[in-house]
């Protein structure tokens, strides 16, 4: 987009200036940014220059009374730019759909990956979501709907947040920006009832592409009913396609003016962190001990139930760094040795992905080096997580599911545990034979697993946990939200309640819960790419070719007694059509899915 000046700039940009203009004094790095910074705004000539400002600077945004940032406007006295906007390129919006999310390339520079998530495209998508929300909420004009917007640490986050804000404001809705946030917090904002923090939001948008490379970004959408499904995303993208052609220079300028009157800024992550802290305190508070010291009674463990526990966090330079300071430390835990807590959208240390071997190696090393009781690792937007015990043993994939299942089945004996289809047979035996629960495998994809658990409850089969091998875990008690932080809170609850009951031993209480899980000697997932230019595919159907490959695998399975097809699998031979094929190899036989 061409540079635009003479605009009303919200003081969120002032907060960025504080980070950008460190040379003007250390006071600009502290929690409070003065609104009187007009002389320090980064002008180039008579136009505003924001291009050098990264979303990484947002992690020190100020905290104010009642959770609000000072909303004094800063006005630019530059003359309106005469530069015209370039004509908009054609965009296939439906190609941006990734299941129940939207994903695209937001940063140029990677060969073969042209930018698809431009600011005009983003604004059109946001406007389409606003239209969808107005229809969904049956808005009658009696009040203005409110949309919260947050983002992870990606370098394209700020420009996309600005474009989303314009699109929402242009539709006449109120915009509340959270800045750096986690995906679960965004959903939670639609449930929180606290007008001091402008909650609840009627809808919420998280700007993230999970663990994908730095040049990618995308959107997740929520209402108080949960995350939007595939059909909703398709609807929004179809609306966006028709809106896109109407995005012109005048429209952008108008939306900028509306945004200036509609955008507010709230530190909602403080609210969300407090919610997690209280969840642990409640678990410990169920068993309150009293001691007599100098004839004065004291409550023990209620406020600081993790006192003395050494827990290290690896946020992978994503949005999860808050967990160490804002959750663990108020609970009394020691967090020295925690690493990569600062947001950095280039992810310089390792991919923020609990499934990544290098990432898990990093948190294991942190636990062992610091002799910690427990290690916790998050993905970029904190909707997935994994853990490591004091010996360096991972709670990841099947072992994480086993551990969480053990905790849930203690609370809800006999309940059904819903997982994706690539979990091991050993996990099924553990859940059903040792824990006394029921293991229900379903389609791969976190939304598929969650929706299946909700469906089971609706037909009378009790289910309290839906969890995918990748680390997406959702609990009925937490509104079926896949929340990596809340999943770790369940582990902390176990530590706290065990200590409150007089049982100590650090993370051994967790390790013991997963004992008995039979793990495969070899577990390998193969992803077989289908070459669109292959001579067998030329001129033919991609789907038919993929199905022929699967049929070939099935024939191999039938002809070799060492191979066995999964007896229960809702997808047959698992293949994500048009993308990849997956194979799961287990112990003494190959388990094709």
Tally of DSSP helical segments: 15
Mean pLDDT: 79
What is the makeup of the main sheet? 8 strands, mixed
Helical content (DSSP H or I, runs of 4+): 25-40%
Q: Could you tell me the number of beta strands?
A: 28
Gap between N and C termini: 46 Å
The geometry reads as globular
Characterization of this structure:
This protein is of the alpha/beta class and 593 residues long. Helices cover 33% and strands 19% of the residues. It has 15 helices and 28 strands. Strands 5, 6, 7, 8, 9, 10, 11 and 12 form an eight-stranded mixed β-sheet that branches. A hairpin with a 4-residue loop joins strand 17 and strand 18 (394-395). The longest helix has 18 residues, at 119-136. It is globular, with a radius of gyration of 25 Å. The two termini are 46 Å apart. The model is unreliable at 1-86, 289-298 and 572-593 (pLDDT under 50).
